[in-house]
Design goal:
By secondary structure, this protein is mostly helical. It has a domain of about 50 residues. The protein contains eight helices and no strands. α1 packs antiparallel against α3. The longest helix has 17 residues. The radius of gyration is 19 Å and the shape is elongated. The N and C termini lie far apart (about 75 Å).
Amino acid sequence: MAIIPKSKPKNYSKILDILNTKAAANTLSPQTYINLVGEYSRKAYDNNEISRQEYMDIVKPLFGDAGIMATKKIDEYREKFSGGSKPDYWSMVTRKFIEAGGEKKTGMSINEFAQQYFPKDD
């Protein structure tokens, strides 16, 4: 009869500690970084390693203005590694405007939104 050792409990908060370093943020693509933070913060919360408030403090920056800026950073990263071809500006702005909740949630017209979050350099 083989003796099987008990599986060790998962410790997702250690992974969050690693993700909460400058090295992790600089090494991973913005999309990967955000996905991992979201995934492991939820796992840590579900595993009772962090409180609800700690979980909210981690994921809250992924929404609102900070989330819009993170999305912009992701798009810039994709553009950089896609051979430099720019996505259609207004298609991208429209998509981001809708994701942010449109005029009702942002309190801005799409043009105001574009000027504030995606100013053109030309």
